[in-house]
Backbone:
């Protein structure tokens, strides 16, 4: 029954867009600080994000401006991003907060996220399936620095990884 | 003096691990020549990177009649192909590409998609049992005399089974009739197709890969008949095209080549405007303006019109058609030939398109030609589409649509300009320098993205280019190596297509130009490569060899590192030791020792507090002896005499060095990323002046993991920065400074910016 309901949900998702001829990626830089803090900057192609947001929510996300700076309302980003991106330590989801975002003129959206974790972190689980439902070749790179140093690339087949 | 112990430890542990599995008796030097990786030079392709004396390429000429059915979005065509075998080989069969079959219901491109249940969406579910009846319907294949010709279709390829081999220097003429359903590009996707405008119920067709096209037969691949799966694009022989396109009356057509029946198709006023455009160098002239296009899109006229085009020496043919088209044009003067830059767009593209599109086409031609050769074709066309960017000879389809109220953000504007530059630029790579896209995407996308970057920067100072500068590729290159492919990977097997085939090769070319070779040597060599392979089929080796041969720089290490490996750049300034020359003079040496001793003595906290203390010995003269007045820091006559003798034995050079009073710095570097690169250092001295020293990558020749080098200066060094202009794509700059300095992360920079103003609309809308 659960599977059936999931299927029904996806089948209403709407149209498809093909971007020729590049396949885009997202890159997130997670920095784990000694004092038990996580700082995350997540880069996506704004154009791709807008498309997937629209298809997933059946409504457009419109950017706003602060003088020349273009960005999205953090509250609109929150639900979408955290449905597709989460960080846990030993099965406990870390409470992440979007502190802001900006869309650069080269079309890159950067979302700034922070959260608290325990000090001397030895292990971190990342779930990341950003945009993969709509762009089958989407690759999501996560680079870790600070207390844990590593890199991993997520895709539509690999959505969870434990960094140690 | 940092990281010394840390990296010593790391190196001890990791180097054996890196070498695990490698045969210690073989040569893994980063500077090892590329001879095992590249094809051996031969009579077709020389060791200098030029076409060989027996280089050949086959040709295919087409005569086509195309009919567009606007009622049911169906395209019908009949074509005559004359194939010329210029090779020294007998060909028993010919191969033809049927790209539309990628959209056939039984296409392998649907079958090879992977993913779990959660990754499904509307399209992937539909693709399990595709509804759209796409793909070619081949209705007839005949000899020139009309008799049937045997053929076999294998997915996206069709083999013409010749009754007798096609001999060298002979030609074979045959006919194919076909039709297919045109795809809705926004719903089904695709490089070509149609867009439907619900408001005025019109279609805008951007049509390409629409006819059975000859494959390339050459000296490296034989027949290039690798199936079309969607990612690896095209490789096609050059030839002449004579194409008649039948469209509903009222449609405006844009196509590869020259319109040869303008007098039958266009009004006298439109012809007059077109002539005016041929003399307008500064501003585009409207052949169909917005008002006329709006009128045009409102009424469906009866009948058809045949637009007749001829194109010489092109590798493909593309076209677009719609009632909605506005059409403008301007002339681009070149030393060898004038070119008509043109744009075709619906009102939905304005005001952006009328202001920028044609001028961007003109700018692109001027800029690319400067670095390669004069654009050889008569026209260059930019056609407006939603979303995509896609290129064909003389014509390309480009995105960039303002909002409905006509306002747009800067991002939309730069996005549109960037895509037009890129797609028009593809005329050079691969339409003219005709590399094999199905094998090597980077040879056209990477080189084109590199020239796109140069063209963007010449369009406007500070243009926000997404790719080109070295620092923009670092996040990709430092990433998880399991999901990164070397640039030299076949188009269908690449991980992270955009970064691999566009970003990294474009950056590599820019680094070659700015850092490794210098602009003068690079530009000359790049132009040599472009001119050597203009209207020919180059392979990667031809580029590698040409750039080396024309510059006298051995770049094998660069190709090996940047194109054949996934190594990244992370050079670390590990350790610094400071030295001065000891001239052996006992007077100055002892005086210096005294200063050091006094400094330490005076710093000691107890000594400072005891300053006023009168000691027991000071109160009792009877405790004084020889050592009370003995000065250990004063040179003895014996020492002075010995020094004089030492000096007498020195030659002039030695004396000069001793008297130079130089400061010596021994710097230790380690190569953490694996990619060998030049070492560029910025030394800042105690008087706040600075000196840039650039050491070529060959410094890593004998040891590509760790090196030590001594630098001598007249002045004392206060600061050292490695890669000060961020030109080497160094992925970790935290180990580039002495004394150590942490650069703020993007996160930190953002967090401390002040952003208190209230959000609003885009500045253009706000002003409105």
Residues:
């Amino acid at each position: 029954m659960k599977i059936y309901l999931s299927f029904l949900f996806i089948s209403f998702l709407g149209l498809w867009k093909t971007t020729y001829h590049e396949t885009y990626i997202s890159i997130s830089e997670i920095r784990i600080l000694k004092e038990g803090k996580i700082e995350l900057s997540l880069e996506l192609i704004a154009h791709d994000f807008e498309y997937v947001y629209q298809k997933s929510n059946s409504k457009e996300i419109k950017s706003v401006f602060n003088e020349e700076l273009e960005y999205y309302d953090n509250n609109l980003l929150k639900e979408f991003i955290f449905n597709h991106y989460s960080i846990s330590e030993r099965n406990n989801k870390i409470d992440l907060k979007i502190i802001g975002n900006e869309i650069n003129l080269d079309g890159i959206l950067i979302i700034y996220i922070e959260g608290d974790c325990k000090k001397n972190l030895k292990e971190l689980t990342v779930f990341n399936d950003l945009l993969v439902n709509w762009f089958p070749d989407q690759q999501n790179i996560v680079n870790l620095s600070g207390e844990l140093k590593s890199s991993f690339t997520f895709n539509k087949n690999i959505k969870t990884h434990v960094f140690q | 003096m940092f990281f010394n112990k840390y990296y010593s430890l790391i190196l001890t542990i990791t180097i054996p691990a890196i070498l695990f599995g490698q045969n210690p008796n073989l040569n893994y030097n980063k500077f090892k020549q590329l001879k095992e990786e590249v094809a051996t030079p031969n009579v077709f392709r020389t060791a200098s990177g030029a076409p060989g004396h027996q280089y050949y390429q086959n040709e295919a000429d087409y005569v086509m009649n195309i009919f567009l059915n606007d009622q049911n979005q169906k395209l019908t065509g009949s074509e005559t192909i004359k194939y010329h075998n210029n090779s020294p080989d007998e060909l028993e069969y010919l191969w033809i590409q049927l790209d539309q079959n990628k959209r056939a219901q039984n296409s392998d491109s649907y079958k090879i998609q992977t993913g779990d249940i959660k990754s499904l969406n509307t399209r992937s579910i539909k693709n399990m049992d595709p509804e759209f009846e796409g793909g070619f319907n081949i209705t007839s294949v005949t000899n020139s005399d009309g008799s049937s010709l045997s053929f076999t279709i294998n997915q996206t390829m069709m083999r013409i089974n010749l009754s007798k081999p096609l001999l060298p220097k002979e030609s074979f003429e045959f006919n194919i009739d076909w039709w297919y359903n045109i795809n809705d590009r926004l719903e089904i996707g695709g490089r070509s197709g149609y867009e439907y405008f619900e408001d005025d119920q019109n279609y805008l067709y951007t049509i390409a890969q629409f006819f059975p096209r000859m494959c390339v037969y050459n000296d490296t691949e034989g027949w290039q008949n690798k199936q079309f799966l969607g990612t690896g694009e095209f490789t096609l022989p050059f030839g002449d095209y004579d194409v008649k396109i039948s469209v509903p009356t009222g449609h405006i057509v844009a196509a590869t080549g020259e319109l040869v029946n303008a007098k039958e198709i266009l009004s006298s006023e439109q012809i007059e405007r077109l002539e005016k455009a041929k003399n307008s160098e500064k501003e585009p002239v409207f052949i169909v303006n917005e008002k006329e296009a709006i009128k045009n899109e409102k009424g469906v006229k009866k009948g058809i019109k045949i637009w007749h085009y001829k194109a010489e020496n092109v590798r493909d043919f593309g076209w677009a058609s719609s009632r909605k088209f506005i059409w403008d044009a301007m002339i681009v003067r070149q030393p060898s030939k004038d070119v008509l830059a043109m744009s075709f767009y619906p009102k939905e593209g304005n005001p952006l398109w009328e202001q920028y599109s044609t001028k961007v086409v003109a700018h692109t031609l001027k800029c690319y030609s400067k670095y390669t050769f004069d654009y050889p074709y008569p026209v260059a066309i930019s056609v407006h589409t939603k979303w995509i960017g896609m290129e064909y000879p003389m014509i390309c389809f480009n995105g960039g649509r303002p909002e409905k109220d006509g306002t747009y953000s800067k991002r939309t504007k730069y996005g549109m300009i960037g895509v037009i530059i890129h797609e028009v630029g593809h005329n050079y790579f691969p339409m003219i320098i005709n590399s094999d896209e199905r094998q090597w995407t980077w040879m056209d996308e990477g080189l084109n993205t590199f020239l796109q970057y140069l063209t963007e920067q010449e369009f406007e100072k500070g243009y926000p280019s997404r790719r080109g500068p070295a620092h923009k590729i670092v996040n990709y290159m430092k990433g998880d190596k399991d999901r990164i492919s070397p640039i030299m990977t076949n188009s269908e097997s690449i991980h992270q297509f955009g970064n691999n085939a566009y970003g990294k090769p474009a950056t590599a070319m820019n680094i070659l130009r700015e850092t490794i070779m210098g602009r003068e040597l690079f530009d000359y060599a790049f132009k040599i490569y472009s001119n050597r392979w203009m209207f020919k089929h180059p392979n990667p080796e031809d580029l590698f060899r040409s750039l080396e041969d024309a510059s006298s720089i051995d770049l094998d290490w660069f190709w090996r590192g940047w194109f054949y490996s996934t190594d990244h750049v992370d050079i670390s300034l590990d350790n610094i030791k400071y030295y001065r020359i000891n001239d052996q003079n006992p007077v100055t040496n002892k005086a210096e020792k005294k200063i050091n001793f006094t400094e330490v003595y005076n710093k000691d906290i107890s000594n400072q507090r005891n300053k006023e203390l009168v000691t027991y010995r000071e109160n009792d003269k009877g405790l004084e002896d020889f050592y009370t007045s003995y000065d250990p820091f004063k040179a003895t006559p014996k020492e002075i005499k010995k020094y004089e003798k030492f000096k007498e034995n020195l030659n002039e050079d030695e004396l000069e060095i001793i008297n130079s009073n130089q400061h010596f710095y021994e710097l230790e570097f380690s190569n953490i990323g694996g990619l060998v690169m030049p070492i560029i250092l910025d030394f800042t001295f105690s008087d706040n002046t600075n000196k840039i020293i650039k050491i070529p990558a060959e410094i890593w020749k004998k040891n590509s993991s760790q090196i030590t080098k001594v630098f001598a200066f007249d002045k004392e060094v206060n600061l050292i920065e490695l890669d000060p202009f961020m030109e080497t794509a160094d992925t970790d700059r935290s180990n580039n400074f002495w004394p150590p300095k942490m650069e703020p992360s993007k996160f930190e920079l953002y967090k401390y910016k002040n952003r208190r103003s209230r959000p609003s609309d885009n500045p253009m809308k706000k002003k409105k």
